[in-house]
Amino acid sequence: MENKYRIDTLENKAFLDAIRENLLAFGHRFPAPDGSSYYLGDDGTPWTDRPRETWITSRMAHVYSIGCMLGWEGAGELADAAVRGLRGALHDKQNGGWYAGIRTDGTCLPTKQCYAHAFVILAATSAMLAGRKGAGDLLQDALETYDRYFWEEEKGLARDTWNTEFSEVDPYRGINANMHTVEAFLAVWDATKEETYRARAGRIIDRVITWARENEYRIPEHYTTDWVPDLTCNQDKKDDPFKPYGATPGHGIEWARLICQWACATYGTAGAGQYIAVAERLYRRAVTDAWNADGAPGIVYTTDWTGQPIVHDRMHWTLAEAINTSAVLYQLTGKEEYAADYAMFLRYLDETVLDHVNGSWFHQLDRNNQLLGTVWPGKSDLYHALQATLIPYLEVSVSIAAAVAASIAKE
């Protein structure tokens, strides 16, 4: 095995450092004049003819806040630009909250999305830890909006979508937005020590674990208003870009890592054993179902409820999460199988998914690992990829920005 793929080697750390440096350099042209984030083309050129979306801008604020803490030249100014976009053009001053995005003519994209608001919270916590101006006010506004409109205290879960005016809530409920809510709430806990948000993250996690166990550790993505799993959602349109039918193995892998983070933060590593065991089940189910499922390396996007592939495309974010979670489980269990998986994923990244010419990752490949752009044309953001260069060596129990801040403070 090449040492650059082997966890806990100097060569591996150097490999990840080089990838991270290239990613930060690749994405630096994202800000529009108002601070919102352009989509980027395959070579990093801003696509000025596409809407500028809140979730992308939030992710770039998060990424360059981390870059700022790591000392990457110019990252602070880029984080500031994204924060300015979130406090300005993307913020709905009339109705509150954040637009889904803004079009090139200045009009807003309809609806208010839990997914996007969770990322605003994440962005604000990261920018606050990086000492960026206005981040504290952004976080306060984001939490007040989220608590008012998205969090359902009785259910211990979050609503998915409102109309733009916050006068009508969509009956659909989705677990993806709740997954990023867990991520955001844990980041709030780490940044502010406000126990409410760590407790809420735990409530979501316990519900998800129940649903996973009921479905052989394949997590349902779609739900009715009363939070009954809808296992047939879009059965007649299996490749729906927003609500695909079936299970999403990449989310099972991502949930496994977040469960480990919350459990270790709450109970300590020694007391988190039952949750770590669940995370292992979720991870192994997803990898068994999805990795090399059709005779070629890569993690298929979706499967049916027996684990058979449906959408065979490979998304870059699933690989990033597989790198993260295999490393985390190796840290927590010491099992060699996770180190072997980590090396396998990094080899695939190096040989297939890394864009060695332009310095980023290819975001979507087909079943033959050829470039596609049907779901994510171009390269929208750096969030998943950059995190995968850091999480393998950070403290499991702490959110990434807070863990970076803590590691810098120790130096």
* Shape label: globular
Relative strand content: 5-15%
The run of helices and strands is HEEEHHEEHHEEEEHHEHHEHHEEEHH
Question: What summary fits the major beta sheet?
Answer: 2 strands, antiparallel
Counting DSSP H or I runs of 4 or more residues, the number of helices is 13
The counted number of beta strands is 14
**Neighbour order of strands in the largest sheet:** 1-2
Q: What is the share of helical residues?
A: 40-55%
Mean pLDDT: 97
C-alpha Rg (nearest Å): 20 Å
First-residue to last-residue Cα separation: 31 Å
Structural class computed from helices and strand pairing: mainly alpha
* Low-pLDDT windows of residues: none
Question: What characteristics describe this protein?
Answer:
14 strands; 411 residues; 13 helices; two-stranded antiparallel ribbon; 51% helix; mainly alpha
Structure description:
This protein has 411 residues and is mainly alpha-helical. Helices cover 51% and strands 7% of the residues. Helix 4 (114-129) runs parallel beside helix 6 (175-192), helix 8 (249-271) runs antiparallel to helix 9 (273-290) and helix 9 (273-290) packs antiparallel against helix 10 (316-333). The longest helix is centred in the middle third of the chain and has 23 residues, at 249-271. The relative contact order is 0.12.
Brief write-up:
With 411 residues, this protein is mainly α. The protein has helices at 10-26, 54-69, 75-87, 114-129, 135-149, 175-192, 195-214, 249-271, 273-290, 316-333, 336-353, 383-387, 400-410; strands at 39-40, 46-47, 52-53, 101-102, 112-113, 151-152, 157-158, 161-162, 173-174, 222-223, 314-315, 354-355, 360-361, 364-365. It is globular, with a radius of gyration of 20 Å.
